[in-house]
Each structure stands twice: as structure tokens, then as C-alpha cells.
Design goal:
Largest sheet: 6 strands, mixed
Protein name: Serine protease
Signal peptide: 1-34
Pfam families: Trypsin_2 (PF13365)
Strand content: 25-35%
Strand order of the largest sheet: 1-10-9-13-14-8
CATH superfamily of the largest domain: Trypsin-like serine proteases
Helix content: 10-25%
Low-confidence stretches: 1-32
GO molecular function: serine-type endopeptidase activity
Structural class: alpha+beta
Keywords: Hydrolase, Protease, Signal
Oligomer: single chain
Number of strands: 15
Number of helices: 4
Length: 259
């Protein structure tokens, strides 16, 4: 297994505007638009419903699994398909310099219903390792087995990883964990191109801690993660992702076969 030693930069996404976030989270999750361009409204952030898809998303914590989340959560990751059934996807800037990290899928209300999983291997693109290129702000982590089980089996499935998808071909559903909230929030909207290699989506109240949040398209595949430009954006209401191209695709294949 390939493990890479790295140096952490802090997650720079701005703290949430608490009053606005509470208003938005009061909206019921049934109002969220479907990612396959179903009925709206788009661009509304709500508390994510607890279901088979949302539990594939979890919070990344400082400290190993044995600490039970005592180090606090600081980024978001999601389970993606792999041969070893043990792979999560996040932003490269989330996997820097911490000797011990753990992942809690489906983390909600301060509880980890599927437990904490140790990160035991990290895969970063060459562009990020070389000069922290914002177009390479994507990474994978392999998780250790827990109680004889792999994370994909524990949560009942995983999302596909998809590169070379046209930005905005369908809407995407973005789900993540703001640092000040112990439950996931979610929003659906159509991303637009920011540049040839960066995309953006307008979803309010995605604050610090949501870096690494997956963008799941209408086919149920992850086509972006919050990161890239300005490590995901310098406001809560607009988030960015690198466009997944050849570099991200090749990294995925290496990581997916490593478990």
C-alpha cells in the first residue's frame, strides 16, 4: 500500500453565518431538488435526511479511531467504490500533516452510528505534492478494517467516482459537515464552469469543515469535491471543485486497487 507523508494546511473556508444557517436548516429536507433535474427548489441548504446515500458521507476527525472523535471534525469525505471496499474521497488539502486521522460515516448529532475508522493510507496527485496546484485538490484515503468489516460493507454501499464529466450536465447534490455543526447539511444545484479546470456551485451555508464534500450527479457518481479554487471558496455561499480529469482518474485507479 502506498502511504504518503504530508504537511497540513488549515481548512480556510469561512465560518458559517449562524443565524442564516439556522434559518436554512429549518427547511425540511423533502424540499431539496433531485440531482437528476427533478422539481426544485435548487440552491437551498437543509439538514441532510438520514438514508442509505447520506450515510456514505462522513466527517474527518483529528486523532485515531480509539479517540472517538475527541480531536474534533475538520473536513468531509465520502465512501467511493474500490476493490478493497475501504476507500474514501476528499480534498487534498484535508489530508496534510496529521499523523493520525479517522473517519465517521453517517456522523449525526454527535454520534457515530457506524463507528470511527482509522485512515491508514493516503493518495495525493502529483500536482498537489509538487506545488499544491488547486487543479489537483483531490485525494483518496484507504481505511483500516474495523471489527473485521470494511467501511463500504458497513454503510451498505458506495458512490461511483466519475472523471471527464461535463460541468452542469446534471445538477449535483453536495453534502458536508460545517465545523460548527454535528450533522450533515445538503444542497442541490447545477454547477457552472469557473474556468476550464474549475467548477463552482451556489449553495448557502457551506462553511469551514465542508471541504471534501462530494458533488453527486444525477447518475449517483461523484464528479467533484469542495476544494480547488481558494481551497473551496472564501464565502459560505459559493463552493468550488477541481474538474476531475486524467490526473484524478489515474489516482483513483491506483487507490482503488491498493486496498
Amino acid at each position: 500500500m502506498k502511504s504518503i507523508r504530508i504537511t497540513r494546511l488549515p481548512d480556510t473556508r469561512r465560518p458559517a453565518l449562524l443565524g442564516a444557517a439556522l434559518v436554512l436548516l429549518a427547511v425540511t429536507s423533502s424540499s431539496v431538488a433531485a440531482a437528476d433535474d427533478g422539481p426544485g427548489p435548487f440552491g437551498v441548504t437543509v439538514r441532510a435526511a438520514e438514508n442509505g446515500r447520506s450515510v456514505r458521507v462522513g466527517a474527518l476527525f483529528h486523532g485515531d479511531a480509539a479517540s472517538g472523535g475527541a480531536g474534533g471534525h475538520f473536513c468531509t469525505a465520502s465512501v467511493v467504490r474500490s476493490r478493497g471496499r475501504d476507500l474514501v474521497l476528499t480534498a487534498a488539502h484535508c489530508l496534510e500533516g496529521q499523523a493520525q486521522l479517522s473517519f465517521a460515516p453517517g456522523y449525526r448529532d454527535g454520534r457515530a452510528p457506524y463507528g470511527f475508522w482509522d485512515v491508514q493510507g493516503v493518495f495525493l496527485p502529483e500536482g498537489w505534492k509538487r506545488d499544491q496546484d488547486e487543479d489537483s485538490d483531490v485525494a483518496f484515503a484507504v481505511l483500516a478494517t474495523r471489527d473485521g468489516e470494511e467501511v463500504e460493507d458497513a454503510v451498505g454501499g458506495a458512490n461511483a467516482f466519475a472523471a471527464h464529466r461535463a460541468t452542469g450536465a446534471t445538477a449535483v447534490t453536495v453534502t458536508g459537515y460545517p465545523g460548527s455543526v454535528d450533522s450533515p447539511v445538503t444542497c442541490t444545484d447545477k454547477p457552472t464552469a469557473y474556468s476550464r479546470t474549475q467548477q463552482r456551485v451556489e449553495c448557502p451555508a457551506f462553511a469551514g469543515g465542508t471541504s471534501g464534500s462530494p458533488w453527486v450527479n444525477g447518475d449517483g457518481a461523484v464528479v467533484g469535491v469542495i476544494g480547488g479554487h481558494e481551497q473551496g471558496g472564501d464565502t459560505d455561499d459559493v463552493s468550488y471543485s477541481a474538474v476531475f480529469g486524467t490526473e484524478a482518474e489515474e489516482l483513483y485507479h491506483v487507490a482503488a486497487l491498493a486496498g
